[in-house]
Amino acid sequence: MTTTLNAVERVLTVSQEATRWDTYAPRFEALLATDLAAESVPGWLAEWSALEAELGQAGSKLATHADLHTDDAAAQARYARFLEEVSPQAQRTGQALIEKLLAVPGYQPAPDFALTYRRMRDEAALFREANVDLGVTHEAQMNRHGVITGNQQVALDGETLTVPQAKQRLDHPDRSVREAAWRALAASNGEVAPQLDALMLELLPTRHQLAANADLPSFRDYMWKRLDRVDYTPEDCRAFHEAVRDEVVPLAAEIVGNIAARLGLDSVRPWDYNRNNLLDPEGRESLKPFTTGAELETLAQQAFDGLDAELAGRFGQMREGGLLDLESRPGKMTHAYCQYFPVENQPFVLMNVVGTAEDVRVLFHEVGHAFHGFLSGAAQPLVWNRWSPIEFVEIPSMAMEFLTLDHLGHVFLAEELGRYREKQLQGVVAFLPWAAQMDAFQHWLYAEAGDGVTVADLDAKWLELDKTFHPFVNWEGLDEGVRAKGWQYYHIFRAPFYYIEYAMCYLAAVGIWRQARQDPAGALERYKASLRLGNTVPVPELYRAAGAEFRFDREHIRGLMGFLRERLAEGS
């Protein structure tokens, strides 16, 4: 059953009462007024968790509705009011509740709450009153990125296209078509670049001030604490950047170079390289396994039916419940993500599909996130114990890209399935240099560049890094100003310092797939068991539960690249 846009709108409906702080304030005040002893903490936590779920769900639905309607001033204003009027009060009250919990004499958290308790303690130490209102400003600034890019249009061949629709043409076997699409996208990006430049120059002082208010020397130090990065250091990240440069970039260059040679290309130009979908070496049209979002839902349902009855049922629940919005259309945010509504334990997937095999992969990715929400939500009553630390949170999604590979016979012919699998493996190799570049840029920006950084500095650093991590792309004769704006990307604006996790999890997902080739049932059961653990165990233990290693060092990367090279040589 395919949901309609009206069904989605019903899911995202938020009552006027749920957008006001006075709806929640009496219950928060009652929690603060409770005479709390060690033995009464579990019941008190359950009440607090339920209230946090209601409040969080209201914010999540308002945010998602705003992303689906970037051209609707009323939707944007409603979410902005919630951020301005409710979020600061909730943050201050949350801090007071954490302090109350930490002060309970004799309280020892249960094993499944110990990690959250430690994180609450660290969160309380990081809290500064000055950052409450500044945090609202920060959220509002970040949300402007979605408005700017969500309304972006591309003029191409007499048509007005959305960005995802134009990007689809970058996969065309005709080089002239790809070049025209690339130039049209570059022109469209150039039109919004000044707005994004100005926005970043607003964001940087705000982020520096958040760190200064917390008595920390840099925004990197601030985010390290806020993201609870306790299992690795900035130095480990730098080692990862170097390992990718030395172990992955040469393999990526080899793969891309071989494709170019088979196509008779003199060199790899920017319109010849799409890291999400490398060119077909035989010059064939890109795979187009579906036309509409409804067809994509149906083929995905069949894949999940073949993979696992429990997961198939969960996807069916999403289809029937208005929890999927897949079609690309004007006024809709161009990114893809999975949102979560904790009261009903319901995930929601937003995408912008245009009929490509890449859309199939992205849907499996985002629904992998949805499975994480479903399974952790069903297993963990407390809202804080759902999902997982961010170093693990992409494993459910990325592993699902691999676990579905053997269940797509209804989608692709045998030869097409081989192409799809090859693209999946190539995509890992092509992605890692991009991930390292994104992470390295942010380490420089927030820990080295200083307060007086200019747009020219941003452009120059990105250009330097792009030449390091993508040396196989030939920009000769082209405007390097276009290349230098590659930093104007969603995560740089809206999810600072959240990117290396994708690389960590892709490496782990390859390891899970390697095991699944030998023991499909066991790998799937370990996958689901790790999702149910939610946020109750440390990152390395979550990885072990999933059958992976929490490693991203040179030796580990070299071994996995060797495995991928072998699979690519044998046709996966």
UniProtKB/TrEMBL annotation:
GO biological process, one term: proteolysis
Cofactor comment text: Binds 1 zinc ion.
Statement: the UniProt record of this protein carries the keyword Nucleotide-binding: no
Signal peptide location: none
Highest taxon listed in the record's lineage: Bacteria
Pfam family of the protein (one): Peptidase_M3
Gene Ontology MF terms in the entry: metal ion binding; metalloendopeptidase activity
Record domain Peptidase M3A/M3B catalytic: where: 172-557
CC cofactor: Zn(2+)
Keywords from the named record: Hydrolase, Metal-binding, Metalloprotease, Protease, Zinc
InterPro entries: Pept_M3A_M3B, Pept_M3A_M3B_dom
Family that this chain belongs to: Belongs to the peptidase M3 family.
Protein name: M3 family oligoendopeptidase
